[in-house]
Every structure is written in C-alpha cells, then in structure tokens.
C-alpha cells in the first residue's frame, strides 16, 4: 500500500573507520541506487547516552557527514538529514509513547545490556528507556518499510513493527468509518458503487475470494475517488480499518565483519581501527606494526596465515593470486611479514583514495556541505509532515 522506502541512521560518534565502511556505508551506497533512501544522523539518539557531554556531538555530526559523502553516499540519490532538525521526530516519539507498553521496552535486549556496559553513566533515564520508541518514530515518520541494520539493531525494528500494528489497531478505524465508507461508495460513478457493494457482500457473507479480487480490481480502476476514499474502500472490503503506519522489516546487512588491526572486529572501543580518511603514513605504520602469527618469530620460521590477523585483511583486500602468494610464501618461509603486508597497505590506500577526493570538496567548502544537509532536512520535513497529518487526525488531534 505504501511504496518501498528505506530509512537508516547512525549515531554521530566521531570520525568513521573502515569497519563502518565495510559494515554499513558500502551497503547504503548500493541501496541508494535501487530504492528511495533516507539516511539520518541520529543526534537525538546520541543524546540519550551522551547528555552529560553534548559538546562532542556537533563536531561528530559534521565529521560523520563528510565521511558519508566521502564513502559515496550521494545527495542526488538519497536524502541526507539530521534527526533533530526535523522536529516531527520528537512529536511522533511523544505520541507513540502513549501506546507503547513499558514491558515491551524493558524487555528489549540492548536495554539492560547497555546499562551494564556503560555503568559509568547513569542511563536510568526516561529518554534512554525510550530509545526504541525514538527509533520507531524515525522509521515510521517516513513510512520506511525497509530498514538496513546490523544484527544488534534487529530487536529495534521488531518493536517498530509491533508499535505500528498496535497503532493501526487502535487508531486505524476512524470513529465514523462506516459512514465515510458508505459515503465513498455513493461517490463512485455509474453502477460501480452498486457493483462494489454487491461484491463486498459476496465476499463477506460467502467468503467468495473471486469477488474480493474483482472488487479490488474495480477500485483500482475507478477514476474519481480521492486517495483517502479509495484506501477506505480497500479496507472496508475486508472489514478492517486503515493502515496508517506500515509494518517495517529489517534488511539485514550481510555479516561483513571487518577485521581490525589485531584480528578482532574493528571497533573504536578496541582501539584497532583505521579511520576512513586516515593519512597514508599512519595507515602504513599501523599495518607494518600489526601482530602476525606468534609462532613466526624469525624470518626463517614458517607461519600459518590462519593464525595471523594480516591474513584476514588479505581476505578483504587481496585478489586470488595475491592470496596464493601469501599462503605459499608464509607456510614455506619464502616471504617475510613486512613483504606480506605490502599488498594490504596498497589495498587500503587504494580504497581510501576516492574517499579523500570526494571529501576534499566539502572540506574546502563547508557551506556546500551545509547546503546539502539543509536541503535534505527540508525534504525530510515535507515527508514527515504528510505522515504527521494522518497520525494527528487518527489520534483526534486535528482541530480544523
Ligand atoms: N540505533 C541505531 C544504531 O545505534 C541508529 C538509528 C537511529 C537507526 N535511528 C535509526 C538505525 C533508524 C536505523 C533506523 O545503530
Ligand atoms: Fe602473517 Fe603474512 Fe607474516 Fe604469514 S607472512 S605470518 S600471513 S604477515
């Protein structure tokens, strides 16, 4: 009923690293070609955990936006915007909070996890408990039905679906639904209204599935119905109400676990990252200093790539002939580790090169970046306003 639309977001946590690129951004760049996409800087989500130090958020927002554009997120194809600049997120969050059972929020797995993990912070706040409601609002505000996320965020997309269902169930039936539907039938041209009513009766009383299909086809063809009336009549056929908010589903990013410098998953908290726009000297130095197979103490000792963090990077960056060269050279002590690392260094630098080039424009002309984001926020607000009109009306808050 609603067209496919993608919404995803990222909390501004500072400069991004290659783990973000391989895990998330590469996927966004692919998706933006195939779907209408909105990519959002989740600065309000950052506030739920960093409310005690807001100074870092703004800087991080701009750094992250440059990194997005550097990675190839394209403002010509996708809408790029900042959550807090579209106040409807806060409004929808408040309205959805009215119908979200506390127990749903308390049982979200990340809730207790995060409180324990970030024990140096006081996360016993109303805002932090509401994190999933805020995320639900982000998604439903644009009627996003597809949400590309990592495994850890799947429970949040599930709660989004549950809240949408509950909302539709509670508010999808307009109070005078039946009258409105009957009035819409009268507006149908010629005999079509009468045909619709007969088909509906046949379906509802006799369960005649063909009648349902015929009625749907009829509705799709009729010319002079308003969009709202048409939707009402589609719902009226099956006895249901209106679907105001869609049921979203996660688009799981294929688990591309980008290995870090120590072989563990690349993550800021492990201190094993290479940033997206790290300068080449630093990249070279970091890779040269990477640990290798601990059994390979001397140059003459053969090694085992399976026990070496450098090998994991070859799996990301090297072609088959290079990999064969590594396995052969390592296990026979034919190559040294510094030699083995060279193609990885080159692979990373080659990947970064176009990113530096794309970033350069925005670093030289910060006003350009601002214009792109202003434009994105404006387009996001227009879409948000549409949804909020329906939501307010459904909840009886439309005093017109
Ligand atoms: N919570 C997400 C994260 O930490 C970020 C986010 C906020 C998000 N709103 C969203 C992701 C909406 C997808 C859709 O990664
Ligand atoms: Fe690792 Fe390469 Fe050294 Fe083997 S040769 S231990 S794969 S860095």
UniProtKB/TrEMBL annotation:
GO terms for cellular component: cytosol. Homodimer. ATP binds at residues 11-13, 19-20, 150-152, 265-269. GO terms for molecular function: ATP binding; tryptophan-tRNA ligase activity. It comes from the Bacteria. This is Tryptophan--tRNA ligase. One of its GO terms (biological process) is tryptophanyl-tRNA aminoacylation. A motif ('KMSKS' region) lies at residues 265-269. Its main location: cytoplasm. PROSITE patterns: AA_TRNA_LIGASE_I (PS00178). A motif ('HIGH' region) lies at residues 12-20. Belongs to the class-I aminoacyl-tRNA synthetase family. Catalyzes the attachment of tryptophan to tRNA(Trp). The keyword Plastid does not apply. InterPro entries: aa-tRNA-synth_I_CS, aa-tRNA-synth_Ic, Rossmann-like_a/b/a_fold, Trp-tRNA-ligase, Trp-tRNA-ligase_bac-type, Trp-tRNA_synthetase. The keyword Transmembrane does not apply.
């Amino acid at each position: 009923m609603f067209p496919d639309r993608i919404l995803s977001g990222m909390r501004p946590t500072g400069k991004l690293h290659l783990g973000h690129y391989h895990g998330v951004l590469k996927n966004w760049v692919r998706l933006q070609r195939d779907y209408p996409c909105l990519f959002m800087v989740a600065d309000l989500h950052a506030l739920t955990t960093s409310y005690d130090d807001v100074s870092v958020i703004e800087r991080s927002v701009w750094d992250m936006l440059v990194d997005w554009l550097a990675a190839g997120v394209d403002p010509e194809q996708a809408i790029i915007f900042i959550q807090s600049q579209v106040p409807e997120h806060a409004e929808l969050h408040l309205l959805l909070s009215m119908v979200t059972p506390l127990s749903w929020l308390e049982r979200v797995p990340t809730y207790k996890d995060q409180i324990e993990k970030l024990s140096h912070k006081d996360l016993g706040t109303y805002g932090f408990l509401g994190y999933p409601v805020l995320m639900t609002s982000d998604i439903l505000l644009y009627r996003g039905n597809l949400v590309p996320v990592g495994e850890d965020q799947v429970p949040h997309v599930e709660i989004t679906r549950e809240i949408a269902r509950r909302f539709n169930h509670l508010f999808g039936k307009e109070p005078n639904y039946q009258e409105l539907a009957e009035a819409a039938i009268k507006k149908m041209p010629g005999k079509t209204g009468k045909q619709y009513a007969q088909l509906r009766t046949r379906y509802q009383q006799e369960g005649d599935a063909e009648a349902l299909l015929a009625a749907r086809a009829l509705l799709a063809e009729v010319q002079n119905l308003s969009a709202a009336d048409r939707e009402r009549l589609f719902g009226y056929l099956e006895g249901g109400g209106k679907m105001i908010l869609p049921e979203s589903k996660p688009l799981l990013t294929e688990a591309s676990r980008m290995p870090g410098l120590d072989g563990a998953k690349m993550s800021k908290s492990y201190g094993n990252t290479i940033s997206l726009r790290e300068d080449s000297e630093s990249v070279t130095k970091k890779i040269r200093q990477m640990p290798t197979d601990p059994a390979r103490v001397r140059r003459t000792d053969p090694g085992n790539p399976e026990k070496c963090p450098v090998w994991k990077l070859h799996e990301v960056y090297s072609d088959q002939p290079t990999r064969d060269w590594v396995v052969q050279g390592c296990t026979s002590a034919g190559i040294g580790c510094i030699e083995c690392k060279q193609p990885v260094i080159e692979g990373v630098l080659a990947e970064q090169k176009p990113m530096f080039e794309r970033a350069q424009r925005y670093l030289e002309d910060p006003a350009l970046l601002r214009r792109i984001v202003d434009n994105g926020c404006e387009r996001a607000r227009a879409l948000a306003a549409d949804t909020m009109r329906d939501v307010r009306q459904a909840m009886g808050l439309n005093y017109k």
